[in-house]
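Quick start: what a row looks like.
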Amino acid sequence: MRWADKKIAFRDAAAQATFAHLNAIGSGSAALAPASVFRLELVRDPWQIKGHIFVASACPLLERTGELLPSRRLARMR
């Protein structure tokens, strides 16, 4: 599976989890809300962790070779 396909799969999973969470809240079933929030975190956290790992490892390498996009360079300065 290509990296782009994995990225799409993660986005789809996050969108489905968000939709299920909003449905659970909208249906008034307060008992389901904590489990729904937990599920959202399980889907989103690996994606955020992957992003931090990328920034910590790839950005310095890309910056050294002059291949880091200007938009990424600004984001690192913040």
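That is the whole record. The chain is about 80% helix and 0% strand. Residues 17 and 39 are 7 Å apart (CA to CA).
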